[in-house]
């Protein structure tokens, strides 16, 4: 072909070939300009379907006119072979640029936005590329990206995916639905773009493991079934917002992905224009990080398991007291307790540089502790030691382990660090033994919240105190477990509340500077809704122990309950600085960001939740409410469906059940609420009755509501007044549903006069009254109540979906409220 003239194009040289076509450099003799000519490859000429689609899709691409898309000039034919004349792009393929090394964040943002804008223009014209990959993106000398080969690479014979070298690039950048051979829409292009953004930052394909080049099927499998590796493993300065964009583009389900290139481009444009895009995700100074795995119990007695667990926790505590170290919490390492040791996985999941392992053997009065510190990156053991001592030296062993680990990591210990590490909690070893047992039962309370564990923890701490009345940590532990009776809503016995306060205050009399006792007192005040006192005590705990992540978390929780959401979010962010893989903090931060209507930040935190624990029901619940606010009801339905399938907690089911009802999924709401049972506020029985009623099952609805009313009347007689507002509101809604609306309004008003009512509870009162007024068809009063509520959880967005308000939906007042 070289040297021939085709129509008015003189072919000068071959540029390349692949897929379906051969491309030549040519000179347009009429307009005297250089062009590119693409011919249908000879092997496809005999296939009528391939020929027809070649021409149809070329015509579609010719309608596009955008600076980031290669321009199509005309379609022609020579010797029964179709060709396309197009803009000649003199530039370098993005694949070669990526191969040369990772790209800086500003460059990635620039290139990503250009590609998104090009795709947006194409999708508006109904043209889907279906083969977005680095080889099909060219960069010109002036920094402009050009998307090439629109609609061509998708056309194949009858095979959707091949394993030849020429086709691997296409398969490696397919969306999951495309890899399954399903029909695709524009969202498939966005998945491919997400992979390229990741690759520009990380320098590697998001789904390509070490075996990928030899086994392309592994890439396809990963695209279909696996999550991409966290970007933090390969790029250290990726802004949180950009990582959120990538993860959203890489959602397996098209329904959870960006729904349009316009939406994706808008998020990228925001990042480009924001000064935040120049900041790394983690701005804290780099400190060595270590995870202390549970020390193995090698003793003959199974009962000594608590002793090994206690030694582990004490070492975690000692190392956490060193300001120059970042230490994974016990809650974080718990997931690896009964698994084979995989250093790479532990390092990746907990984002730590080192792992400390060990074992404990106790026989009579002798204890043997072995410990070894290993570097995750290469498996090299940087320190190890064995201690054989009498039990009376147990605290010295723990101190030595902490000091020697710090030394091995080249961390300088300050005098304050040394004082905290060397502090001996008790001189009575039997008391210490009971204390370790109590702490282990208390840990079981955190993870399972069963009354039997609280009871056992109380007994162990009491025995420790009996043997050493000056054991401040034991007094604090006893006070904390007594607080757990009410915090966990297990028993509201006033005697337990008094004992909690007295025991914690006794700990502080013995050790005023004990940070754990200050945190225990803060949680106690929070349980009684004395939030300013709670914040003061928790702030003091943080002063005493600057790296005390648990105290920061409790402080954030107290501020959240007090309605000081911005302060709460800052506290949770500090927790995440100290513990970058603390799932519960990400979850709570996500909800707090949602309350503050910072939906981009909410998405970012939810994405991190998915990285840490994929498929957690509460993350899906928060995502459901987020998508309702964003008007993405299809996504919200899917979120609540997944949340309902996974939730077994009656209290959390309240939110999920209401979400399902607002989205008219009554059957699933009934299934959930029947399965998990009633919640302490009685809300689940009310919602169950509501779902039955909306399905026309009036008999079942009446039974649920009457059972709920009986339950709540009993609860209100037993539960301390500060904890009753939500119970009163549930009872009011049940009374209203049973036709007793005037009585219901009186009941709801009782919640307003309860001492120490939370701000959101005050707001919810007005929501409840708005619903009750709507039942009376009093639209003006209903809307006034809703407007004055200022609830962070129930806005006009939720009201527009609420079936309880449909009775006033056509009133002028309600219509004005929805658009205000």
CATH homologous superfamily assignment of the largest domain: Transferase(Phosphotransferase) domain 1
* Biggest β-sheet description: 6 strands, antiparallel
Instruction: Return the domain count.
Output: 5
CATH architectural name of the largest domain: Orthogonal Bundle
pLDDT < 50 stretches: 152-169, 210-214, 276-285
Content of β-strand = 5-15%
CA gyration radius, whole angstroms: 32 Å
End-to-end Cα distance: 67 Å
How is this structure best described in words?
This protein has 37 helices and 15 strands. The protein is of the alpha+beta class. The chain folds into 5 domains: 1-88, Phosphorylase Kinase, domain 1; 92-155 and 166-282, Transferase(Phosphotransferase) domain 1 (Transferase(Phosphotransferase), domain 1); 289-424, Rossmann fold; 432-575 and 588-597, Tetratricopeptide repeat domain (Serine Threonine Protein Phosphatase 5, Tetratricopeptide repeat), CATH 1.25.40.10; 654-819, Serine Threonine Protein Phosphatase 5, Tetratricopeptide repeat, CATH 1.25.40. It has a 6-stranded antiparallel sheet. Strand 3 (21-28) and strand 4 (33-40) form a beta hairpin. Helix 24 (583-595) packs parallel to helix 26 (617-629). Mean pLDDT is 87; it is low at 152-169, 210-214 and 276-285.
């Amino acid at each position: 072909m070289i040297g021939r003239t085709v129509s008015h194009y003189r072919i000068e040289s071959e540029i390349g070939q692949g897929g379906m076509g051969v491309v030549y450099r040519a000179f347009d003799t009429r307009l005297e300009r250089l062009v590119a000519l693409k011919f249908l490859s000879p092997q496809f000429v005999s296939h009528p379907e391939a020929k027809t689609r070649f021409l149809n899709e070329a015509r579609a691409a010719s309608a596009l006119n955008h600076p980031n898309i290669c321009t199509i000039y005309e379609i022609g034919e020579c010797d029964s072979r179709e060709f396309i004349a197009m803009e000649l792009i003199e530039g370098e393929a993005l694949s070669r640029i990526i191969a040369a090394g990772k790209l800086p964040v500003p460059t990635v943002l620039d290139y990503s936005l250009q590609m998104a804008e090009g795709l947006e223009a194409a999708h508006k014209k109904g043209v889907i590329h279906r083969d977005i990959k680095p080889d099909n993106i060219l960069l010109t000398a002036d920094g402009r990206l050009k998307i090439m080969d629109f609609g061509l690479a998708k056309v194949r014979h009858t095979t959707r995916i091949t394993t030849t070298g020429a086709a691997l690039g296409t398969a490696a950048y397919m969306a999951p639905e495309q890899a399954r051979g399903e029909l695709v829409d524009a969202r498939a292009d966005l998945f491919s773009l997400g992979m390229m953004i990741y690759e520009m930052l990380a320098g590697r394909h998001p789904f390509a493991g070490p075996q990928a080049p030899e086994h392309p099927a592994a890439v396809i499998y990963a695209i279909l079934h696996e999550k991409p590796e966290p970007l933090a493993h390969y790029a250290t300065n990726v802004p949180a917002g950009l990582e959120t964009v990538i993860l959203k583009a890489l959602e397996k389900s098209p329904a959870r992905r960006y729904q349009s290139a316009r939406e994706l481009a808008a998020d990228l444009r925001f990042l480009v224009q924001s000064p935040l895009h120049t900041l790394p995700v983690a701005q804290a100074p780099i400190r060595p990080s270590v995870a202390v795995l549970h020390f193995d119990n090698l003793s003959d007695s199974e009962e000594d398991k608590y002793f090994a667990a206690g030694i582990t926790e004490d070492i975690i505590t000692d190392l956490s007291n060193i300001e120059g170290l970042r230490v994974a919490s016990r809650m974080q390492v718990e997931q690896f307790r009964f698994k084979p040791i995989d250093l790479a996985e532990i390092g990746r999941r907990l984002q730590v540089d080192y792992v400390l392992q060990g074992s404990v053997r106790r026989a009579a009065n002798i204890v043997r502790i072995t410990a070894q510190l290993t570097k995750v990156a290469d498996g090299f053991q940087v320190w190890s030691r064995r201690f054989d001592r009498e039990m009376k030296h147990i605290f010295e062993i723990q101190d030595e382990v902490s000091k020697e680990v710090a030394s091995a990591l080249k961390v300088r210990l300050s005098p304050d660090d040394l004082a905290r590490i060397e502090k001996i909690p008790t001189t009575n070893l039997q008391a210490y033994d009971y204390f370790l047992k109590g702490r282990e039962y208390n840990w079981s309370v955190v993870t399972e919240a069963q009354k039997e564990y609280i009871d056992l923890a109380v007994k162990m701490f009491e025995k420790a105190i009996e043997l050493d009345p000056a054991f401040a940590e034991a007094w604090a532990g006893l006070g904390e477990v007594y607080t757990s009776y009410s915090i966990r809503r297990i028993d509201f016995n006033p005697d337990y509340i008094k004992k909690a306060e007295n025991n914690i205050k006794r700990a502080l009399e013995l050790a005023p500077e004990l940070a754990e006792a200050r945190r225990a007192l803060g949680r106690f005040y929070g349980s009684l809704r004395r939030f300013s006192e709670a914040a003061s005590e928790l702030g003091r705990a943080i002063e005493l122990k600057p790296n005390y992540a648990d105290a920061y978390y409790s402080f954030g929780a107290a501020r959240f309950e007090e309605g000081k959401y911005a302060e709460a979010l800052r506290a949770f962010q500090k927790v995440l600085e100290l513990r970058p893989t603390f799932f519960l903090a990400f979850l709570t931060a996500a909800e707090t960001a949602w309350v503050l209507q910072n939906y981009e930040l909410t998405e970012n935190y939810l994405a991190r939740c998915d990285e840490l624990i994929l498929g957690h029901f509460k993350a899906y619940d928060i995502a459901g409410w987020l998508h309702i606010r964003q008007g993405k009801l299809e996504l919200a339905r899917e979120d609540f469906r997944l949340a309902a399938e996974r939730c077994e907690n009656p209290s959390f089911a309240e939110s999920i059940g209401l979400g399902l009802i607002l989205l008219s999924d009554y059957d699933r709401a009934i299934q959930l609420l029947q399965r998990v049972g009633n919640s302490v506020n009685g809300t689940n029985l009310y919602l169950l009755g509501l779902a039955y009623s909306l399905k026309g099952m009036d008999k079942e609805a009446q039974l649920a509501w009457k059972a709920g009313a009986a339950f709540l009347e009993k609860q209100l007689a037993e539960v301390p007044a500060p904890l009753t507002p939500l119970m009163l509101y549930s009872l009011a809604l049940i009374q209203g549903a049973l036709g007793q609306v005037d009585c219901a309004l009186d009941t709801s008003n009782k919640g307003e006069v309860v001492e120490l009512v939370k701000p959101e509870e005050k707001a919810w009162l007005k929501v409840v009254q708005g619903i009750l007024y709507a039942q009376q068809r009093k639209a003006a009063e209903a809307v006034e109540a809703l407007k004055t509520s200022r609830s962070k959880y129930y806005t006009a967005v939720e009201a527009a979906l609420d079936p309880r308000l449909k009775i006033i939906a056509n009133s002028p007042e309600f219509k004005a409220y929805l658009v205000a």
